[in-house]
Amino acid sequence: MGSSEEGDASADVRLAHANLDLGDSEMSMLATAKMLLHRTPKLEQQTDLYTHEVHLLEGGEIDLASLRGQPTLIVNTASKCGFTPQYEGLQKLHERFKDQGLNVIGFPSGDFADQEFEDAAEIGEFCQKNYGVTFPLSERTSVRENPSPLWQELISQPNSAPPSWNFNKYLVGADGRLIAHWGSKTTPDDPELVSAIEQALPEQ
């Protein structure tokens, strides 16, 4: 289940070329390409991802252990990317399934061509003003270049892969194990993604 676009290093670099604006610097492209060519070691067995804490954009934190019993959709986001309009679809998923137990957490990151604001207030204002985002956002986080402990464990799962660009989606089950992941081109309303969420929801 999920996209296979992350599985090949050369494909990752081609995706980077396709998503960089003409105004992006050659230095940024080279840095991104170098990062994409680095392979992430795989764990032999799945691990519990709900052992981590997430530091939030506006302060405070979420202890993921408090989400046990509920699925979580984890997404690496960016404010200045061609896929940024997917925030709208993610917000709709949040509104549709939050009362049924789904958590959506966005992780703003500048790993891919530095397509995220540096300032936390600017990120928050952009997301709220343009897309009405009300689901939690983490502080600006590295998800591939120098991944945080959560992201290092997430992308090393046997059934996972590191994000090849912004807006990769990782569905974590109620037990803290990764169910599946999808690439940037899979939109939040994709039937396969929505079906996986529905199957992961706790029984009412």
Keywords:
single chain; 204 residues; alpha+beta; Glutaredoxin; four-stranded mixed β-sheet; two-stranded antiparallel sheet; 13% strand; globular
Describe this entry's structure for a reader.
By secondary structure, the protein is α+β, with helices and mostly antiparallel strands. It is 31% helix and 13% strand. It has one domain: 3-Layer(aba) Sandwich (Glutaredoxin). The protein is built from six helices and six strands. α1 runs antiparallel to α2. The chain is globular and about 50 Å long.
Task: Set out the fold topology.
Blueprint: H1 9-19, H2 26-37, E1 53-55, E2 61-63, E3 72-77, H3 86-97, E4 103-108, H4 120-131, H5 149-155, E5 169-172, E6 178-182, H6 191-200
Parallel strand pairs: 3-4
Antiparallel strand pairs: 1-2, 3-5, 5-6
Helix pairs in contact: 1-2
Outline of this structure?
The protein has 204 residues and is an alpha+beta fold. It has helices spanning 9-19, 26-37, 86-97, 120-131, 149-155, 191-200; strands at residues 53-55, 61-63, 72-77, 103-108, 169-172, 178-182.
What is the SS-derived class?
Answer: alpha+beta
Tally the helices.
Answer: 6
Write out the CATH superfamily name: Glutaredoxin
User: In total, how many beta strands?
Assistant: 6
Mean pLDDT value: 89
Low-confidence stretches: 3-10
Largest sheet: 4 strands, mixed
What string gives the helices and strands in order?
Answer: HHEEEHEHHEEH
Spatial strand order of the main sheet: 4-3-5-6
